[in-house]
Amino acid sequence: MRQARDVAVRCDIRLVRLLLGMTWFLRIAPSVADDLGADQPRPVPPVYVTENHGLMASFPPGLTYCPLPKDWVGSDHGTEVYLVPPAGCGASTSYWSSDRSPGSRVPTIGLYYAYNVVEISPGSGRYSPPRTPREALQIYCREPHAPVPAGIQLLGVVAAGCLIEDRRSVEVRVVGLYSVDRAMQEVADHVLVVSLMTTRDRLRDDLGVFKVIAGDIRVCTPDWAKEVKGRSPCPLGVGWW
Q1: Which of 24, 44, 58 is CA-nearest to residue 218?
Q2: What is the predicted pLDDT for the residue at 186?
Q3: Cα–Cα distance, 124 to 82 (Å, whole number)
């Protein structure tokens, strides 16, 4: 039984890593494509809000994103924004909204969130979802990796994360845990992963933009959750894209 559970846990972690590596409450997304069509990158709206997962983020001007196709059906798990506009936008066939299809590989900041349900064993022999961001690195940062660059904040604390390099690209990935509903506080009910994918020669400049975006992401209270003291309600009428 223990061996079967170990295999299942490893499979869960591999699935998460695979889906993240492809690029970075089920709901059908609202249509975000209009007369411009889903094949052109758009200017990024200044605010992003997901009531499904209780998060809000702000974005500086000058970035673009690929809208989801009109007929897309899937699950709200995040988005991608591009520091350099892609040549075009393909028709995304992914079930996850965080996996877009730019027409060319460009420097990208990815925003991914989900329920914190993938179980790990932190060494005690007991299995549970990660209780700290550093434990979550077992799932979202594959070894070997370098330490995350200094000075990155996520959800109000110094970010845990990793830096992964290959011959042509660099990826910075930071991980945070949070709870939307105050009734679920012993183990955070959500995980947030923010990533920067860029080239070595752009890393310094792109990392500055990444720090601003990651540092401004906040947990908000959706209308379906219980109020949490000191936490703002999620803005209405903004939405995720």
Answers
A1: 58
A2: 67
A3: 41
Mean pLDDT of 147-167: 94
- Omega of the bond prior to 85 within 30 degrees of 0, cis? no
Residue 155: both structure tokens together: 């959800």
- 142-109-97 Cα angle (round to 5): 85
Task: Tell whether the model's pLDDT for residue 194 goes beyond 80.
Answer: yes
Return the amino acid letter for 138: Q
User: Could you give all domains of the chain from N- to C-terminal order, each with its CATH number?
Assistant: 2-219 (3.40.1000.10)
Cα–Cα distance, 89 to 104 (Å, whole number): 8
- Judge if pTM exceeds 0.85: no
Report phi then psi at 208, rounded to 5: -65, -45
> Is the model's pLDDT at 45 over the cut of 80?
yes
- What residues does 65 pair with on adjacent strands? 42
* Residue 134 neighbours by CB under 8 Å, 6+ apart: 160
